[in-house]
Amino acid sequence: MSSYPTLDAFDFPVSLAVCTDVEILSLDGDVEAVRPWKSVTKPLAALATLVAVHRGLVDLDEPAGPEGSTVRHLLAHASGLPFEAGAPAQSPERRRVYSNIGFDTLGDHVARRVGTSFADWTNAVVLEPLELTSTTMTGSPAYSATGSTLDVLGLGTELLTPTLISAELGEQARTVSFPGLAGVLPGFGRQSHNDWGLGYEIRADKSPHWTAPEADPATFGHFGQSGSFLWVDPNARLVAAFLGEKSFRENVHGRLWPRLNSEILTAHRRQV
pLDDT digit string (tens) for 215-267? Predict the structure, then answer.
């Protein structure tokens, strides 16, 4: 039997790992199986970018992408670039437009600054130091990573308590950039305040949402179309990572994830 009842409602293999900053709380399913992360790649790419910022190789406010856009805009999906391809649909800071091409543009920019491919940079400054040995990112910084659930959890613990960047930069990354921007959260519809930090989606008051309805507004992370998620609750000091064998479906993941995440929070509160 799974640690959380809702896990048994998935009719395909899934894996879940939950921890605090001091201990692993639960492991369910094959947490060592390597599966696609899809857009959970973005927090990984964001962290690699922030390491370059921390080392003084990149500045958050230097021009990058379309006219008027900066590294900060690209990280926060506020550059005006569209989802997949094409010219900017608007000027920066008008709307939160979730953009894969924005992260590809970001990766190209960082690669020029650090003098190596973005994939090699990510491997050298994030994957190797954190010993995320099952994880590879060989293509797009928006969606190409694969790795185990344990590695997703390892990434989450780094986001909770940064060791590769300063605590101040880590705090800035999980704080809303360009507050008040409306936009569409893929799979969950239009949000009047589609809050995002520096590569990390911020829970805030979004509804509907993939985290628990009662989740702390400070919760941040990402989910991916492969049926993956990573969230970090900085106040409860809690991290959860999920991977599965089937791609995201609104009537499955969109329905079950909030229930599952409520069970995780409830179990944690009983233990503290």
Answer: 999 999 999 999 999 999 999 999 999 999 999 999 999 999 999 999 999 99
- Give the SS3 label for residue 102: helix
Question: Domains in the chain: how many in total?
Answer: 1
Q: Which two tokens stand for residue 111?
A: 């690669």
CATH number of residue 48's parent domain: 3.40.710.10
Is 31 in contact with 15 (CB distance < 8 Å)? yes
* Strand 35-36 with 146-147, pairing: antiparallel
Question: Which domain does 9 fall in, by range?
Answer: 5-271
Q: Could you give the 3-state DSSP secondary structure of residue 100?
A: helix
| Inter-residue contact 220 to 202 (CB < 8 Å) | yes
Q: Which long-range contacts (CB under 8 A, 24 or more apart) does 178-182 make?
A: 178/73, 178/76, 178/78, 178/93, 178/96, 181/78, 181/93, 181/94, 181/95, 181/96, 182/95, 182/96
> Model pTM?
0.97
Q: Could you report the per-residue pLDDT of 20-75, keeping only the tens digit for each?
A: 999 999 999 999 999 999 999 999 999 999 999 999 999 999 999 999 999 999 99
Number of helical H runs and strand E runs in the chain? 7, 10
DSSP 159: H
